[in-house]
Amino acid sequence: MNKYYTYIATDSNRKFLQAGFCQDLNSIYQDMQSSQEPTLFSFAMLNRIVLVETHNSLYEADRRLKELNAMGRIVKERLIRKTNPNWLSLCPNLSKFRTNKKAVVYA
Fold this sequence. Notes:
Helix content is about 30%, strand content about 20%. With about 110 residues, the protein is of the alpha+beta class. It has a three-stranded antiparallel beta sheet, sandwiched between helices.
């Protein structure tokens, strides 16, 4: 059975949020890291996947993507902070692309 993933990607400043879905998160993450040109806007370099949800069917993933795209920015931020409060990248399989930055949480 195939797994489908919905994700939210952001840039290093957390200014832009882009939702998408795929079957292979590692290939999406590699494309983000190796891309030299912005993908979403002409000035946004998406480089981090901060929210991942797993689905069993293409229909469920597409429905969830539509829900994520319909949400406002504040709702998306709350959803991300609930599962990933430090907005860290959720693709640990690609350690060669990860940086050794310390996470700081401001309360």
